[in-house]
Amino acid sequence: MYKYENGKFIINTNSQGKPEPVEEIRATNHMLDKLSYQLATKQADGAGGRRLLFFNAVPSGDADSFVATKSLDGLQVTYTTDTAKSMGIAALADKNDVILASSRDHDATFKLAKFGTPENVMFGHYVGQTDKWVADTGKVTYDVNKDGTVTVTIPKFSVVKVSR
């Protein structure tokens, strides 16, 4: 991503002469670090797991948006993004807590079907490779429908825990 020239590091450019997406890569790595415990302790849905879902992990084509619904150990989760290259992650931490993350979209949404009224919805992160959750500052935007479906808006590169 960087090269050393004339006594300083500069950002590499791609074949079209555009700078490498260093800040985006850095933000993605920080986001993944915030939920590293969940990533390290669960098998992903693509490998047969039921408690860790990846949405749009390999973006297809030139679509302007992405919507998918998957089952998180029986809980229906829908990820919607209007940024084609954005990726979503949902993890079932335990029977009461769902961890949500989204990469590039500034207002991606997750719908948790018939989840019920959340006790807490908060930004945060796991402390290293432990199951200790620490709340971060900020107010998460979410709605609850009459049937208990929770819609959570996730700013880019954020991690949110929804608890019941």
Q: What would you note in describing this structure?
A:
The chain has 164 residues and is mainly β. Helices cover 12% and strands 42% of the residues. The protein contains two helices and 13 strands. The protein has helices at 22-34, 36-41; strands at 2-5, 8-11, 52-55, 66-72, 75-81, 88-94, 97-102, 108-112, 120-126, 133-135, 141-144, 150-154, 158-163. The strands form three sheets. The protein has a six-stranded antiparallel sheet with strand order 3-6-7-13-9-10. Strands 4-5-8-12-11 form a five-stranded antiparallel sheet, with no helix packed on it. β11 (141-144) and β12 form a beta hairpin. The longest helix has 13 residues, at 22-34. The model has no long low-confidence stretch (mean pLDDT 90).
Order of helices and strands: EEHHEEEEEEEEEEE
Distance between the termini: 42 Å
Uncertain stretches of 5 or more adjacent residues: none
How would the global form be characterised? globular
Figure out the total of helices. 2
Count of individual beta strands = 13
Structural class: mainly beta
CA radius of gyration is 17 Å
* Strand neighbour order, sheet with most strands: 3-6-7-13-9-10
DSSP strand (E) fraction?
35-45%
Q: Approximately how much helix is present in the residues?
A: 10-25%
Average pLDDT metric: 90
Short description:
By secondary structure, the protein is mostly beta strands.
Descriptive keywords:
164 residues; mainly beta; six-stranded antiparallel β-sheet; five-stranded antiparallel β-sheet; 13 strands
